[in-house]
Amino acid sequence: MDNQELLELKKNACKVRRYTIEGVFNAKSGHPGGSLSAADIITYLYFKEMNVDPQNPKDPKRDRFVLSKGHCCPALYGALALKGYFPADEIKSLRHIGAMLQGHPDMKHTPGVDMSSGSLGQGISAACGMALAAKYDGSDYRVYAMLGDGECEEGQVWEAAMFAAHNRLDNLCVIVDFNGLQIDGTVSDVAGLEPIDTKFASFGFEVITIDGHDFEQIENALDQAKTVKGKPTAIIAKTVKGKGVSFMENQVGWHGKAPNADEYKIAVEELDAQLKALEA
Ligand SMILES: Cc1ncc(C[n+]2csc(CCOP(=O)(O)OP(=O)(O)O)c2C)c(N)n1
Ligand SMILES: [Mg+2]
Fold first, then answer.
1. What top-level class would CATH report for the domain 3-279?
2. Residue 187 Cα, ligand 2 centroid: separation in angstroms?
3. Per the count of CB atoms within 10 A, which of 44, 131, 153, 172 is most buried?
């Protein structure tokens, strides 16, 4: 990618983070940490990688994205709003009763959401079904599923992984947001996953490990995944939970908590400063 494209991605990721904070603050609840760690990858998917059209969100030929770690929907909603699927004003009513944007993605009510998710482990299974359907239909769309590292402690993830390799789903790309933290501690303390790369490889995946905040590495990994034939790809993206908001970075306490008014002010100032620096 050229410098201009890189700059645009960085700016968009910053805006996605800003929407995340705005949504969670106004909801007085939600999941900022894992949304912020996923923001760069989700931004890349919607702004560079996927063949999608906000004017035609149900196009059967579109690429699909399943946010298997559905609690991180504030980042997904931010990217969808920025892409033009719905007005950004919706973000302010995140998690409000009757609002379009609920605390977990709802494919029936939110344009651009390809799969409802939130019960960890189920999203990747649905993604496998979508990828298999593409094979049956002779369609060449690709399916991207983003998982949390804590989510990978769910047995269902590995059943799905086995299924994906068995069915040679080379149109499936799993991205693990490996931020090292889950709901109440480090992943290694709760039920260690390492070595996760050889685990996915032994389940029959092509495995690529990257820095999930480096757009060049994200691009190279997703490009490489498209060349892999006969097996699915897992991208292990090393990330920082809370990335972009200094006091949230690497803090397990920001998994599922809204900032108070003072914290919100600091977070917004930091993100606005980042955006301003990129626009300078
Ligand atoms: C089946 C199921 N069990 C428990 C939960 C509650 N829960 C929500 S988020 C979470 C931790 C997820 O950690 P991780 O996948 O690492 O997410 P991230 O760090 O990206 O926020 C848990 C246990 C759930 N949503 N689904
Ligand atoms: Mg995690």
1. alpha beta
2. 7
3. 172
Residue keyed to tokens 């494209």:
5
The predicted model gives 39-51 an average pLDDT of 99
Tokens found for residue 105 = 């993605």
Report DSSP state, residue 54. T
Instruction: In whole angstroms, give the CA distance from residue 250 to residue 255.
Output: 10
CA distance linking residue 233 with residue 94, whole number of Å: 33
* Entry pTM: 0.98
Across 93-109, b (16+ Cβ under 10 Å) vs e yields: ebbeeeeebbbbbbeee
For 127, list phi and psi in degrees, rounded to 5: -60, -40
Rounded to whole angstroms, the Cα distance separating 46 from 80 reads 8
Domain extent listing, the chain: 3-279
Distance CA 57, CA 83 (A): 11
* In contact, 238 and 211? CB cutoff 8 Å: yes
pLDDT by residue (tens digit) across 116-175? 999 999 999 999 999 999 999 999 999 999 999 999 999 999 999 999 999 999 999 999
The Cα 117–Cα 122 span in angstroms is 7
User: What does the DSSP assignment read for 8-22?
Assistant: HHHHHHHHHHHHHHH
The C-alpha atoms of residue 102 and residue 180 are separated, in whole angstroms, by 26
User: For residue 33, which atom of ligand 1 is closest to its CA?
Assistant: 21
Ligand 1 pocket: which residues have CB below 6 Å?
A: 31, 33-34, 37, 69, 71-72, 118-121, 148-151, 177, 179, 181-183, 241, 255
| Ligand 1 geometric centre to CA of 18 (Å) | 22
